[in-house]
Task: inverse folding
């Protein structure tokens, strides 16, 4: 028997036509498969893999992948969502504007950072102070409420000399230690109100019932409480008033935290930060991504796949995560960015992250308590 494969090739027209009829469907099938695969590849690029609220609620968020680049970026440092948002004792910060002590190779912190005045973003309306620097500084003791407002306005104008910037930051640090971060109220301070504890109160209940627009832990911090268990009926508590917002300057590696908006806003704290390598931190206005705030998060490195447990002391993103979502046309496509802690204090003041804003753990705890969803706006400027 002669196999068909052993037959000589026919040179007749009929043979050619038969061969073409058999080859045509195969060719069309191959073209279709390649086209579908190519379309699938290109149209899947930039797909938003940020966890949805439903996934967050059920703790089934897949690991994120991708490395951010300046335009348009993939998912970067978003931590895996775990049910580790149980409250921990909050260390009371008595000097919130001053940054923590940094290693010798980290250049001078807040004062030196402030000396390099960053350009004012065009989208922000900078209030003009009605008094000069010397007058505002002289009011610090007699009228700290007015002095804080005037000094904040002078600072926002970006017109102070380097030496005056140093004195302004120092004065605001001292004023806020008295007005905001102590249990003693000052008459006329618009950033606080008083509350009397009643039976059955918890700090969370107090915050909800009084429309406090911060995390309840801020009440604990500003009243100098080492534990919520120290609450007692009849106790007088200071409560924060209004929403709090942040501005991050990429040129000075600095975050400023404000109470209020516009001409009446006042500076509450300022900290040095680390930013994205190769200038990858996106700019513009952001808000806190819904249900994204985490305490003691676990994390998977999107570049290497290495996993870090929530309580792992080697976890690079530290003890807090605040997810960000862009609210402007040019930054709505940026997914997976956030504000978080770090175990590498030497990276503060440098371009070292995958695009996120990183802070020391003690500083990010304060930011975590002040910045809330949907109240806060975070503006990142060049």
Result:
């Amino acid at each position: 028997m002669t196999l068909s494969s052993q037959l000589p090739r026919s040179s007749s027209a009929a043979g050619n036509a038969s061969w073409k009829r058999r080859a045509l469907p195969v060719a069309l099938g191959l073209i279709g498969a390649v086209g579908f695969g190519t379309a699938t590849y290109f149209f899947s690029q930039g797909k938003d893999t940020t966890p949805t609220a439903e996934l967050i609620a059920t703790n089934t968020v897949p690991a994120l992948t991708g490395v951010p680049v300046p335009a348009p970026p993939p998912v970067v440092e978003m931590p895996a969502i775990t049910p580790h948002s149980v409250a921990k004792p909050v260390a009371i910060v008595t000097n919130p504007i001053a940054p923590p002590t940094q290693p010798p190779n980290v250049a001078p912190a807040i004062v030196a950072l402030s000396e390099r005045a960053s350009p004012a973003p065009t989208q922000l309306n900078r209030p003009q102070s009605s008094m000069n620097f010397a007058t505002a500084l002289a009011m610090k003791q007699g009228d700290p409420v007015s002095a804080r407002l005037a000094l904040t306005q002078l600072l926002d104008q970006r017109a102070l000399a380097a030496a005056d910037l140093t004195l302004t930051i120092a004065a605001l640090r001292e004023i806020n230690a008295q007005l905001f971060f102590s249990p003693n109220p000052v008459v006329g301070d618009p950033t606080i109100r008083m509350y009397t504890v009643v039976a059955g109160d918890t700090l969370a209940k107090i915050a909800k019932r009084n429309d406090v627009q911060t995390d309840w832990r801020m009440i604990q911090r500003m009243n100098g409480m080492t534990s919520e268990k120290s609450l007692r009926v009849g106790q007088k508590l200071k409560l924060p008033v209004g929403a709090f917002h942040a501005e991050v300057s990429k040129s000075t590696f600095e975050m400023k935290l404000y109470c209020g908006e516009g001409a009446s806003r006042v500076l509450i704290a300022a900290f040095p930060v680390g930013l994205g390598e190769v200038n990858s931190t996106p700019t513009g206005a952001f808000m806190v991504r819904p249900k994204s705030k985490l305490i003691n998060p676990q994390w998977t490195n999107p570049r290497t796949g290495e996993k870090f447990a929530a309580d792992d002391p080697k976890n690079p993103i530290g003890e807090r995560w605040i997810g960000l979502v862009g609210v402007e046309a040019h930054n709505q496509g940026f997914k997976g960015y956030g504000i978080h802690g770090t175990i590498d204090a030497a990276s503060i003041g440098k371009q070292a992250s995958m695009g996120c804003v990183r802070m020391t753990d003690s500083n990010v705890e304060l930011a975590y308590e002040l910045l809330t969803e949907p109240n806060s706006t975070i503006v990142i400027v060049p």
In short: The mean pLDDT is 76. The radius of gyration is 28 Å. Residues 13-43 form the longest helix (31 residues).
